[in-house]
Structure formats: C-alpha cells, structure tokens
Amino acid sequence: MLNFKQLHHFWNVARAGGIVRASERSGLAPQTLSGQIAILEASLGVSLFRRRGRGLALTETGQMVLDYAEEIFRVGSELEEALHNRAAGRAIPFRVGIADVVPKAIAWLLLAPSMKLAEPVRIVCREDKMVRLLGDLAIHKLDVVLADSPMPAHTDVRGYNHKLGESSISFFAAPSLAESLTGSFPANLVRQPMLIPGADAAVRRPLMQWFEEQHIAPHIVGEFDDAALMKAFGEAGVGVFPAATLIAEQVCHQHGVRCLGEASAVSEAYYAISVERRISHPATLAISRSGLEGAKRD
C-alpha cells in the first residue's frame, strides 16, 4: 500500500526543487528526506528524480506521480476545510469561474443545484476570459470553471471536462423589428441587421456556417463578448440576435422580444472544468450530476 507520509516528503521535495531546500522548509534532515524518497522509489519500482547538475529533476514518471500527489493533497486540504466549516456551522465556499461568453441565465441554471444542498454553500462567482479562469483553476483559486467549450488542448493546465448539457439556438427580435420581417423563418433573416456573439464564443463558427448553408448573408451590425449586452442591443431594436432555445421563454419575458424561430442544427454546449478526475466538491458534484436539463426541470 502507498505510504502517504513518504509521498508527502516526495511532494515537498518536488515543489521545493531539491532536497536541501525542502529540508530548510520542513526542518527535517536532508538524509531523512533522501532516505524516505529512496524507500518510496523502491516500493513503487520506479525512479522519481534524476540528477541535473547539483540539483534534482523529475523523471517523466516522477512528474506523473507529482500530478497525482497534487490532487491527493489538494483534496485532503479541501476535506479538512469542509469538516472545519461543518463543525463551525459555516457555509462551504464554492468558488466558480464563469467564462464571459456563457449567458448569465444559463450560468444560473447550471449553478442552481449547488444552492439546494443540505449543507449551506457560499458561492463566489468570477466572470472573465476562459484562459485567465483556467490559470486560477490551476492554482486552486477556483473550484470549477463553467464554459461553452472544453478546455483547449494546447493549454498547460491539467484539468478535466465534464459536459453538463447543450441547447439549440433560436433567433429573437424586438417587436418593432419582428413586425417588419416578411416571409417564413429563416428566409426572413435575409438582409436583416444581425447581432452575433464575439469570436471567443464557441457557437460563433457553427452559427456562421448555418448562415452559409441557409444562403443567408447576415448584415452584421454588432459583435459582443457579453451575451447580456447583445440582448440589451436586441431589446432596443438594433438587430436580430441568437440565444439558447432552452432560455427562450425567459429571454422573451425579460427583454420584451419575440422568438422568430429555432436553428435546430446549431447547438451550444456547456461544460464544468475541474482539476479533479473524480469530482469531490459537493457543489461541483451537484451540478455535474444534475446537468442542464435536470436544473431546468427543477
């Protein structure tokens, strides 16, 4: 069985970048740390470090073991914090990063199950570009990131994608603009002013492809990273705008607009991205189990 005390010594040495520095930080003798790591390597049957000049560098296997150790001790720290909060009667903190391209109404649907747990949760939401949120996720400033696409393959962050659901896209317009449209959907979109999501939105490419397939050359009058701002312009009658069909009723009620039709071939997916292979935070677990459709039914 894995000796977690030895693993913890390895973790400290790897993070410190060498045995001497780890010894200074921990107060343990270098010989003690070196001996414990040697025992761990022998029990695992692998080499975790290799000599590099006067210091040590992780082997490929050592890097893999470090990744697991990071996850093990992070989960242990979260467990300790959760137990401490429970004993003190305090709410469990749930730190969520929301990519700025995710509609706020969708974010609420995704997060709603976390607010219904038996144990109280104190949710802290931060909205930003996905790349910056992933950076904070990597250093454990966030518990989860909600996004409209999986984590980019080229990123250096070690994380896992958990798909929560998807929705087709519908088009909306203020009554004054809707009444001026002639013909049936989607032909009535031809030559109409169009508001579209910004380049960072995952739905942007399939949306433009759908326009091309439908022989609609959109007259784009605005591009928006913020979906709420796009809807505000649409509400003012500036142009037709797309939004998730799942929240069509809410969009119409909140912004006083009309639904023109659904582009069923265009869909937008939503993901929870975590650094955990197996989710342990109770709030993240709640939203992953419920998913978008489950949250909508609730």
UniProtKB/TrEMBL annotation:
Sequence ranges assigned to domain HTH lysR-type in this UniProt record: 2-59
Keyword Plastid in annotation: no
Entry protein name: Transcriptional regulator, LysR family
Protein's gene: lysR
Xref: SUPFAM superfamilies: Periplasmic binding protein-like II (SSF53850), Winged helix' DNA-binding domain (SSF46785)
GO biological process terms held by the UniProt record: regulation of DNA-templated transcription initiation
GO molecular function, one term: DNA binding
Gene3D superfamilies associated with the record: 3.40.190.290, Winged helix-like DNA-binding domain superfamily/Winged helix DNA-binding domain (1.10.10.10)
